[in-house]
Amino acid sequence: MDVELSALPFALRTYGPDGNWSFEDGVLTGWAGPRQDRFVPPTEEGLDPASDAPRLLGAPPEGDFQLSARVTVGFAGAFDAGVLYVHVGERAWAKLCLEYSPDVPTVCTVVTRGHSDDANSFAVDGSSVWLRVSRTGRAFAFHASRDGVRWTFVRLFTLGTEKETDAALVGFMAQAPMGEGCVVTYDHIEYRPSWPKDLRDGS
Question: Which PANTHER family match (predicted)?
Answer without folding.
Answer: REGULATION OF ENOLASE PROTEIN 1
